[in-house]
Amino acid sequence: MELALLREAGLTDGEIKVYLALLELGDSTTGPIVEKSTISRSIIYQILENLIQKGLVSYIIKEQTKYFQAAQPERIIDYIEEREQKLHAIKEKVEHFLPQLLQKQPEEKSEVRVFEGFKGMIEVHEHTYKRLQPGEEYFYQGIIPDQPKHFHAYWKKDHRRRVNAGIKCKLLFHPNTDKTVLQNRNSYKGCDARYMPLQIDTPVWFCGYKNIAVIGIPGKKPINIEIMRQEVADSFKAYFQALWKKTKPIGT
Question: Which of 119, 110, 103, 55 is nearest to 82 (CA)?
């Protein structure tokens, strides 16, 4: 138990063994430390130096011989707090440098990926949170009228998350969809759910945003085809907008 905790605190296995050995030994030269900790004599000085740097070990010299001593266990808390402060400072530096790193990334290449099952559908939708910024939006078109209960449960939870992320959406449902479903979706800020202006019975639905176009095929084992290509995404959006202009708001 103590090994796991000290490891999580940032100590290596060797440092833990040496520190615990010193707690029991008190002032000690390297010989007894090696014997009690079972650490190799070839690396004992390096480990002791690491512990000294972390403030967990000190030493005194008696008759030209170094005697090492473990710091009080309370010092571990101080070490953890110091480590947290350093990590926080590093985090701030990385956040400041992050835009420069992102600029070095190559542009996304055109690609097509296929995702299967309910989890695959969720994974495709999760990409909206990675690619969209607050104020931007995605659209779904041709949403089927009948969906399993766990689908609806997921979307209700996701809309709450979408609101917190500041992302907007426009949804076009099949005309046979129960009106309460659209009213529910419209109850979430930034969502505008409407009926398709045409009764088109098709086994697929579409989604789009930025340079992404998604084709969804519902069923017992849904299939989602994600296409990363600007021309395709633009054509999906033009098709959606043409239909959207012919719709009317539903309200909550």
Answer: 55
